# Entry
Amino acid sequence: MQKNILKRIVALTYLAIFLFGLFVPFQQIWAAPKLTIEANKITPKEYLISANVYELVNKNVSFLSSPATGTLFKPSNSCTTSGGGNPSSCSVSFISKQAGTFTITAWINYNNAKLPSEKAAEIIISKENASPECKPPKALDWLNKCIDCPSPNIIVKGYCEKKITTADCESLNRVLNTTTNKCDCVGPKIVNNVGDCKDPVPITPETPKINTDTTYTPLAPLPGLDKTINTDVECQRDADGNIIPNTCKNPCPFGNYLNIIIKLVLGIAGVLAVVMIVFGGIEYMTSDLVSSKEAGKEQITHAILGLLLALGAYLILNTINPQLLSACLDKLPQATIVIEHEPESAPWSTFAEIYGTTPSCSEGYINVQALTTKPMKINICKSMSSNLTNMLSAAKNNNPSILLGGWGSRTYDQQVALRKQHGCHPDIFISPSNSCVPPTARPGTSKHESGKAVDFTCNGAPIAGTSCYNWLKANAKNYGFVNYPKEPWHWSDDGK
# Structure
């Protein structure tokens, strides 16, 4: 009995090692980059968020809190990991002026995609540990305590800061922004990624090209078989990306894939047959019982017959038609998927000032000075800020009576609150926009949440049917803004 168990263990171990080595790319499994974060309390009011990046160094880690209202990452919402070590690490601190449970997530850019942290960190701030609301002339210091903020210092966003003067900004050829206590660039110039003031580069929207190629191409080869199974059609394409007829060197990659998979299955069958033959041979040689020897011989016979049956089936099918599985999927019908924009029958009219970065706006957010007093500024993703500044100036230069303002970014929490206010039922998160009065987009689907849409006003009033709307309709496309036809006030980077 013990010999039989040992024989089975040896045979199964041999088979498992072979199959594991065949299909698993070791070098990819053991060296996969990953990001982990953890939160540790450093004071009753402040937490340290540590990020560990494995297999990569010098990576910029971005942090996000949900909910974000009243929270602050210090010194900013991102950090850069060290240049050595595995893992490489960096950290930021976190405080909140509001009590509650906060979910902290993080991500890095890896292979032109966002690699999120494996798990989120959860922080619970009690009411007594929330950062205090200081009343002027007191303000928060970096220890989150209320301190006196004597002149010439000023209070900015609840913190006591050194007051920046006009002379300080003039020495840098900039102008003072009294709201943020910072030096802004003069005129249409914007701050680039190294902090210098540069002229914005207009972005000309491209007409999207429609790919009519319906040839099936597997997304990735089997590990270790990329040179054996050619999944690339190897075709010549025209300027629009469409395949030029009769130019494909490998016009049937899926059929090629299936035919080689059959050979792979036959190879596995051969390995199994050898394992069973070895198993039967061991049983035949190590037993003195006639019945056991007969069982070993029978097992060897069955393994050989099974292998011959598999090979015979392949030879017969190959003789009938070598390309029996030539399943060329090159004439599949084209399917068009249309994702409709969720309509909102009323423009957004609340200012939201977002800082840092989000998954939908990795460049970060910035305030653009409006030409009206309501609102005085428009918060928008930096990728569109220069075009918006140029468009506002161009409209006014063309006609001094065209003074464009508007409402830009909107946080996820504001979208949820708006849905609650508009009575969306039965579920504020998944019910369609027309379940609200007025219709309001579901959280996560509004273009305002990405910072890439503006609900414009004309001289502080609704824009529909005005000279401002007519000017935008004729010129906005030159600055990368497209109108959603059902909402005359709503303009975004893609018309959604």
